[in-house]
From TrEMBL:
Gene Ontology molecular functions: guanyl-nucleotide exchange factor activity; translation initiation factor activity; translation initiation factor binding
Pfam family, one: NTP_transferase
Protein name listed in UniProt: Nucleotidyl transferase domain-containing protein
Species of origin: Prototheca wickerhamii
Record InterPro entries: eIF2B_epsilon (IPR051956), NTP_transferase_dom (IPR005835), Nucleotide-diphossugar_trans (IPR029044)
Residue ranges constituting the Nucleotidyl transferase domain according to the UniProt record: 20-156
SUPFAM superfamilies in the record: Nucleotide-diphospho-sugar transferases
GO cellular component, one term: eukaryotic translation initiation factor 2B complex
Length: 229
């Protein structure tokens, strides 16, 4: 959303609203036939739909505008948001965006871009994220990086320190990330295979840092981003 002005004493300060896009669709069929009648984001974890954990986490991090993007089982997701009280919550302003024709994250983001409702930095997160991470560090780092380099439009948050076995038990595919240690620029990010760490990029080896067994946490982007994670 557009920056909001507020008066503090005699000085007029500008506060940028932090928004989030929650993808309430996994765009996969990994959990079929379980998800034939209920979307993954509404499957219970300790008797609580996973979508509720994601929304509560955003509220704790003081996100003010939340756009829940719904594709499959749109009626069920909308009904849950209403009965659970999220549509009338004072924690943030919640908007439901329905598009039943999307088959990928990229298409979902193109729909959101076409609606022109995101005006500044935003958090992009899957609707089944269970986390207690504080977003303030990622937000601060992203804005500082973008202030120094206008081409830095995306900050990806990943969880490291996992073995390949741990990642597979979580249901994910082990990945490899190659970073420039000086700028932290992401040079390579892909599913783990037998390719050498630097394959596909021309950065000198001494400037590459390889991180294996990461889990993509699907987080932070800026309005001009076209496709994230």
């Amino acid at each position: 959303m557009a920056p909001q002005a507020r008066r503090a004493g005699t000085a007029l300060e500008t506060e940028e609203t932090l928004a989030a896009i929650v993808l309430a669709d996994s765009f996969t069929q990994k959990l079929r036939p379980v998800t034939l009648e209920r979307p993954k984001m509404l499957l219970p974890l300790v008797n609580t739909p996973m979508l509720d954990y994601t929304l509560e986490w955003l509220a704790i991090n003081e996100v003010q505008e939340v756009y829940v993007f719904v594709c499959a089982h749109a009626e069920l997701v909308q009904a849950h948001l209403e009965t659970a009280g999220w549509t009338t919550s004072r924690k943030f302003r919640l908007h439901v965006v329905v598009s039943t024709n999307c088959v990928s994250v990229g298409e979902a983001l193109r729909v959101m871009d076409g609606q022109d409702v995101i005006k500044s930095d935003f958090v992009l997160v899957a609707g089944d994220v269970v986390s207690n991470m504080r977003l303030s560090g990622a937000v601060t780092a992203h804005r500082a990086r973008r202030a120094a380099d206008k081409a830095a439009i995306l900050t990806m948050v990943v969880r490291g320190g996992l073995t390949a076995g741990h990642v597979r038990r979580l249901g994910d595919t082990p990945t490899v990330a190659v970073l420039d240690p000086a700028s932290q620029r992401l040079l390579k990010f892909e599913d783990r295979d037998d390719a050498p760490a630097g394959a596909g990029d021309t950065t000198p080896a001494r400037r590459r840092r390889r991180h294996a067994c990461l889990v993509d946490a699907h987080f932070f982007g800026e309005r001009d981003i076209v496709q994230v994670s």
